[in-house]
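Archive transcription. Copying these from loose printouts into the bound notebook so they stop getting lost. Printout 1 of 2:
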Amino acid sequence: MEQMDRLKIVVLDRDTLGEDVPLDALYALGDVTVYGLTAPELVEERIANADVVVVNKIKMNASNLARADKVKQICLAATGYDNVDTAYCRENGIAVCNVVGYSTQSVAQVTIAMALSLYTKLSQYRQFVMSGEYSRQPMMNRLEPIYHEIAGKTWGIVGFGNIGRQVARVAEALGCRVLINKRTPVEEYTCVDIDTICREADILSVHTPLSGETRGLISEKRIGMMKKDAILINVARGAVIDEAAAAKAILDGRLGGLGVDVYSTEPFPVEHPYTKLSDCENVCLTPHMAWGAHEARVRCLEEIAANIRAFFAGEVRCRVD
């Protein structure tokens, strides 16, 4: 612990973690320098004297690490690590650690909430009441737009890590038939190929990491295979689905609903295909918040601190380099 007290830890994008979550777990380990956000051109300067860099979404690669001779460890405040050049880090002796499992309940909760809201058309019913139309009508109820029970429907899950597995448990509890698409089949669920899951799912939620293999996995062709009233939910990575094709399917009435929390560019720019969906009642777009329940962010920081302690104690923990 004496060695760790001298650690220099730099947090590059603290604002992405939320001000309600304290950094006490990091301050206990050494000298901590905190930046709310860091522009790409400032990364090299800010990590120059750091032993440990804590980062959420900022890209870390040769362009900003080449002269960071003191950096021994990069700690991601996330499970995904596609923003870090792990090959470069491996070649240059920089440990890269992510956090696993901290956001399972949070992301699963948002996934389920999106699915139920879209499937039950809650936003339309809420707007009917909030607009005053309900108070002005003679009937005690309203049953349009028509919605259906989720029990008995097919919920397809692409990617079956911790989050996908938790979504499957809840979907089963709601009475859904669950189909899984994953590289290695599991015995407890029906596993099918990606095309079958696209054709058969009434709700399709995506939980797979972004890689060369999964980029564009839910393609225009596969979106075209989906049922006209199916709901597509992406809480994984934006580029796993063809965003332009998903937006067009909604606008053309070929997809029942779309729920998205992640985007290929974040925040997405004004020319992004999803900006055309702002008036669509069957669309739920959220600002990459599914991972971030208060409890999940507290766990995230505790896991980062554990990764730092383990690394400087000579242990291997959550290494992805």
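Printout 2 of 2:
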Amino acid sequence: MKNAINAFAILAVAAVLLHSQALPQGPYKTTFPNGAVLELLPVKAGTFVMGSPATELGRFPDEVQHEVKIERDFWMGKTEVTQLQWDAVMKTNPEKYNQAWYHGDALPMENVSWTEANEFCRRLTEQEKAAKRIPADAIFRLPTEAEWEYACRAGTTTAYNNGKDFLQKGTNCPELAEVATFRFNSGGKRGRFNRTKQVATRKPNAWGFLDMHGNVAEWCDDNYTIITPPVPENEKKSKKSKKQEPPVVNDKASEKIIRGGSFMSMPQFCRAAYRGSAEPVTRSNTIGFRVVLATQPPPPPVAKPQ
């Protein structure tokens, strides 16, 4: 009986520990010693159509529409990572500026490579695990391209996540201005002195995410890949010989995806479906990132030697 009681007590303690490290049902919020607050919003698993329709103004050929299933719930940064958050995690010397071009605690962190953004995620994971705020199978990382577009769209199918489309080239694009800092509202007259703006100064999308369009473009985890459109059923069954199209060459295979456009971007490059890319070592004052928190699938079973 005594052994049974002890076993029950051990299980109860283990349950408490696991519960204390469980991810929340709602937003995830952590406060750093320097006063920075990082807030992530929950995103439920689901299915959506990624890419843009052929009729969308400003569309590029690599935005082929296709259905994507997001298999797991995840949490994503409400805003782009700010400089105060960066300094807290990367332990930047407060007496020395970080490498951003435009300095300010509430400005998005920019001029960071894909590699450096991943190092931020690694250190943040270590910190939050040490504080027992996340379970052992959870990590902070960059979003996948599909996760980014899913969260950006928040159920919309339009060019921008406020339910509006890009209507005319050569205008100041008022349909984008309410949700984005971009070329036409980030500087002085005639586009001079463009620069980043404080995060969370524009309207959020339906799921609460801010600055998904503009301010700084955002690194994603993926390599750039070309999406091949599906062959229509009537063409599959056709026996008529057709002229063979030359194969598409993916000359950006070594580059990482960047999404959302920046304070320097024209409206067509801020659309939800636009796919930018850059080498992972690239640093630019137009590129930053936001983080995702997710639990990882269990490792595959290890085959035992016979």
